[in-house]
Input
Amino acid sequence: MDQAVSARGIAERHTGRIGGPITALREIAAEFGYIERAHMEGVADAFNLTVAEVRGIVGFYGDLNTEPRGRTHIRICQAEACQSVGARELTAAAVARFGAGLGETAADGSVSLEAVYCLGLCTTGPAATVNDRVIVRATAEALAS
Ligand code: FES
Output
């Protein structure tokens, strides 16, 4: 399947709508697992934007990833409130347990780790997400379950 055509097809469903490019990019990321240049070209064509403009949107939103993620994607808060209750230690334990550093995917593709800066759960840190599941007072064991 030609991914540019497919990405354009997804994008065309959202033309003429407020926030259409962002909605299209979110759907493309969900469909393909990440957003590559061909996808951005499809969105640019559908919305009469330049690829640079679409790349700007993708770069602004951290959830719009441009690289494949692990089958399990873990985000660990690195902001101050979570640091004060052990985020650095949690991160070190996760790196050791899953075999990937922040911003990396384990060699077998099982897990990817990402730094985030506040999930809005500051009073219950360290905070993390496993795929879309929120983990408060996170431990490495909780991230693995
Ligand atoms: S500082 Fe970690 S959730 Fe806000």
Remarks:
- Strands lie at 72-77, 111-116, 128-130, 133-135.
- Helices lie at 3-12, 20-32, 37-47, 51-60, 80-83, 87-98, 140-144.
- The pocket of FE2/S2 (inorganic) cluster is lined by residues 77, 79, 81-82, 118-122, 125, 127 (CB under 6 Å).
- The chain has a mean pLDDT of 93.
